[in-house]
Design goal:
About 70% of the residues lie in helices and about 0% in strands. The protein is mostly helical and about 375 residues long. Helix 7 packs antiparallel against helix 10 and helix 8 crosses helix 9 (about 215-235).
């Protein structure tokens, strides 16, 4: 197992570099960039932007870049000296290969530079946003598994009963509701929208959080994440419940279960001592995917609705603003966490069933 883990960890870096490289060069072909955004903002905040342009004129290497020089067609009407100064400000006047190697070298040491438009170090922005996304991803994944696995087992044991039919219908209906729509419904019902004021509407903690005791901080934190986590989890119950149910039904129909029953082994021992370990393998194998889906895809709208400044919202805003340092930094973090989560899933599967030998599979 150790040999397999070292091999997988060794593949993390080339995989990360490949994804980064592909996205870097695709961005070069994307119309519109920081220069266009910068020029467009000159009209409203000319003095501030012109000060930065003047700095760039005096220091051609002021900032690094991740995009080709702006299309002159899009900047028609802007004085060429202003365009050239903005390109120097962001370093767009350098060859693309040079900019790629510089950025790659910086990113390997987690030096993400500064945001183009927020005037803050990118690492500081990520440090503020990452705990929010991790909170949503981890708690949503835990909630989905804590509800779906026991429910799937119960449905398998009570196959074709009224309980099986009604609970199956309930989770399917729940999964059909978009997470953002369910979030709005929860706000209307429980966050002071029109009815009850039970849960807070935004943020991860209340004012004065630092002065609270540890128990008070814990309760305040759980109080704030309750609605966002439920909203993010609602769409994940049906698939995992059905997977767990079918996996247990498949194992319950095998000969070793009939043999154990024929020997007089209790049904509880058969279910938990024999069936559970084999049936859970396929369920656990989906754990990394569930976490990555909760962490990446589902968090943007939920973060927006509940005013949570997470990594999804940060990456989306950076994409809209063409803030390339933030865009590539969030891509780097997303990819790294996804790769590590997959390795963690393999480790969990090995501990659930030590008979699984990934090293032997790799040699095959």
């Amino acid at each position: 197992m150790l040999q397999y883990l070292l091999k997988r960890l060794g593949l993390v870096i080339p995989t990360l570099l490949g994804i980064f490289t592909l996205n870097f060069f695709v961005i070069q072909m994307t119309p519109g960039g920081p220069v266009e955004q910068f020029i467009a903002s000159l009209e409203g905040t000319g003095s501030v932007w012109m000060e930065r342009v003047g700095t760039a004129q005096g220091d051609p290497g002021a900032m690094s870049a991740a995009a080709e020089p702006a299309s002159q067609g899009l900047l028609r009407g802007t004085p060429p000296e202003i365009v050239a100064a903005v390109e120097r400000l962001y370093g767009f006047d350098r060859p693309v290969g040079e900019r790629y190697l510089d950025m790659l070298g910086d990113y390997l040491t987690f030096d993400f530079g500064e945001s183009f438009f927020k005037a803050d170090p990118v690492i500081s922005l990520i440090r503020e946003a990452l705990p929010v996304s991790m909170t949503l991803g981890i708690w949503s994944t835990l909630l989905i598994y804590m509800v779906s696995v026991p429910l799937g087992i119960a449905r398998a044991v009570r196959r074709n009963s009224a309980f099986d039919v009604w609970t199956g219908t309930a989770v399917v209906v729940a999964s059909a509701i978009p997470g953002f729509l369910f979030a709005v419904l929860l706000i209307v019902l429980f966050a002071g929208g029109s009815y009850l004021q039970i849960f807070p509407l935004r943020g991860l903690h209340s004012p004065g959080f630092e002065e609270m005791s540890f128990a008070g901080q814990t309760l305040d934190y759980l109080h704030h994440i309750c609605l966002p986590v439920i909203s993010l989890s609602i769409g994940g119950f049906a698939g995992l419940t059905l997977l767990t149910r079918n996996s247990f039904l498949d194992e319950l129909g095998k000969q070793y279960v009939e043999l154990a029953r024929a020997k007089g082994v209790s049904e509880r021992t058969v279910l938990l001592g024999h069936v559970f370990r084999n049936a859970m393998l396929i369920v656990i194998s989906g754990l990394p995917g569930t976490f990555v889906r909760m962490f990446f895809a589902g968090s943007l709208l939920i973060e927006t609705i509940f005013s949570l400044n997470g990594l999804g919202l940060l990456g989306f805003e950076a994409t809209m603003q063409r803030d390339y340092p933030v865009m590539f930094a969030t891509l780097w973090i997303f990819t790294l966490i996804g790769l590590v989560a997959n390795i963690a899933g393999d480790i969990v599967m090995h501990f659930v069933d030590p008979r699984i030998d990934f090293t032997a599979r790799g040699r095959a």
